Amino acid sequence: MAYVISDECVSCGACEAECPVNAISEGDGKYVIDADTCVECGACAGVCPVGAPSAE
Description:
The protein is an alpha+beta fold. It has 2 helices and 4 strands; from the N terminus they run βαββαβ. The chain has helices at residues 14-18, 43-47; strands spanning 3-5, 24-26, 31-33, 53-55. The strands form 2 sheets. The chain has a two-stranded antiparallel ribbon. Strands 2-3 form a two-stranded antiparallel ribbon. β2 (24-26) and β3 form a beta hairpin. The chain is globular, with a radius of gyration of 9 Å. The model has no long low-confidence stretch (mean pLDDT 97).
């Protein structure tokens, strides 16, 4: 399943820069992951300072 970003997101952008397939973009108040593009690599979760991305 694709990764999702929880409301814990602090909009730092670390995950967007790390995503190898550009599935992450800035949303309204937090970053969002396009489930159709996500390859479930977990790179975003590895760099998030608050642990917001997780596999759904």
